[in-house]
Amino acid sequence: MTLTDAGVELVEHVRIMGEAAAHLSLAASGQSQAVEGHVSITATDMMATYLLPAALKQIRETAPNIVVELIAANDVRDLTKREADIAIRHARPEQPDLIAKLVGNASAHLYASKSYLTGAGHPASTEDLSKLTFIGMPPDGRYLSTMQALGLELRAEQFKVRTASGTAVIELVRQGLGISFLPRQSAELFPELVPVLTERISFPIPVWLVTHRELHTSRRIRVVYDLLKVALAEML
User: Fold this and answer.
1) At 176, is the secondary structure helix, strand, or coil?
2) Are residues 229 and 199 in the same domain?
């Protein structure tokens, strides 16, 4: 579809109206001082599954009238458009209207199941990894270049199962389908998973707590934000 000349003249006005309406909604939400109501939190599926439940339990005990909507999604939700009230991200946001706090760093290591290593052999060096089957996100150029920066000369054909789901990766590793990078805080929940070459290969995963500056004045969102900040810092 192509805009008509009249549409071209109108589109910028409509865009300005949409931005003004979104700003008004954010400002109005920021005026609420009741510690009750709806608060939405977005995080990766792995964090939402394995780390956040303990934090949400603390929120329930402290503010029982708050209803939390947990959005488990690996894409970045736009807080300026109210796609969520609070986000847990692994990179610092660049938008000037967002408030962000680095609450800590998770650590990622290579893990495999005991059953997989029994058959494939436990690698003694990074060179041994070239013989193993990997599981993880699609190995595009950026992913492989990151692995190479860690000293891992991996090949695309080593990735026999590819998925963008963190929880699926953990289950695939547990079932003995291969080896993958996993956050230590999640992998340690499963005794059948074994760390591989931890003394040579590891990297931090920053955890940022983010909200919109207008929403930061909302009491219910501020309560949830502050409780998450403390809970996540303790976990990490």
Assistant:
1) coil
2) no
The phi-psi region of residue 98 (left if phi > 0; otherwise alpha if psi is between -120 and 50; otherwise beta) is beta
Residue type, 46: M
Q: Which of 223, 225, 228 is nearest to 33 (CA)?
A: 223
Instruction: Name the DSSP letter for residue 154.
Output: -
The total of other beta-carbon atoms located within 10 Å of residue 66's CB is: 20
Q: What is the dihedral of CA 148, 154, 155, 159, to 10 degrees?
A: -120
Q: What is the pLDDT of residues 35-48, one digit of tens each?
A: 788 899 999 999 99
In this structure, the answer to whether residues 171 and 227 fall within a common structural domain is: no
Per residue in 184-234, pLDDT tens?
989 999 999 999 988 888 888 899 999 988 777 788 888 899 889 988 888
Six-digit token string for 186: 């999640």
On whether both 74 and 112 belong to a single domain, the answer is: no
Measured torsion, CA atoms of residues 140, 146, 152, 157, in degrees rounded to the nearest 10: -10
Q: Which domain holds residue 171?
A: 106-203
